[in-house]
Amino acid sequence: MSLRNDAAIGDRDWTSYYAAVAGKPPRDTLVMATEKFAHEGRKPGRAIDLGCGEGRDTRELLRRGWSVLAIDPHPAGLARLRESLAELPALPPPHESCRIVQASLEDAASGRAGIAGSFDLVNASFVLPFVPPDNFGGVWEWTCSLLGEKESGGRFAGQFFGPRDSWASIPGRSHHSRAEVEHMLAGLEVEHFQEDEKDGVDAEGNEKHWHVFHVVARRTGSVFLPRSVLF
What we know:
By secondary structure, the chain is an alpha/beta fold. It contains ten helices and seven strands. The protein has helices spanning 6-9, 14-21, 28-39, 56-63, 75-85, 94-97, 105-110, 133-145, 178-184, 227-230; strands at residues 46-50, 67-72, 98-102, 121-124, 155-161, 188-201, 207-219. It has a seven-stranded mixed sheet with strand order 3-2-1-4-5-7-6. Helix 8 links the parallel strand 4 (121-124) and strand 5 (155-161).
C-alpha cells in the first residue's frame, strides 16, 4: 500500500540522510524495549515501526524474531529496506515476517493507510518530531491506541524533541517541554526516561544542538488522556 503525503515528507533531503545512516546500529531505545520483553519471558510478537526509514530498527526486530509492520512516507527509505531484507537469508520470506506500508503517520492515524489492530511493541525512533503540530495530538492518540487494551503490557519506544533543540525553529516540527512529554506519558508506566541536551552534529555532519527525550514505556491498566486534554 502506498499513500504519498508530500507535506509530511517535508523539504529535507531524505535520500542523502538514508545514505548517511546506512549501516548504523538500531536505536538504543528499541534494543532496550525488546530486551525488557525477553527479561519478562515474553516471546517476540507483533511490532510496528513508525517512520522506519531505511530499516535500521526493522531489521533488528526481524533478527530478534518479531513480526513487523514498517511504515514510512518516503519511497527512498522503503526501497533501501526492501533491498536489505533480501540480504537476511536466515529470516522467513519478507511477506511472512515484514509488511511494508508507504504512508505518513497522519495518513495512518486517520485510517487511510488501512492499519488495524494492536501491537506488542510500537517503535517511533526520531519520527514524532516530524509530525506537524496541528496533527500531533491525533497522531499521538493513535500511537497510544496501537498498544491495545489495558493490561496488555505493550511497549512504546521512541523520542521527542525538546524546545531548545536547534530544529525547533523549523516550521512544521513538533517540540515539547519535559513537562509536556511527561504529561503525554501519563497513561503509561515509564521504564526509561532520559533527557539529552548537547552540541553535536546531525547524521550528515551538520552542526546541531540536540535536545531529546528518549523514552521506553509500558501499557498498564491506566486510561489514556483524550486528545482534548493532552493538547
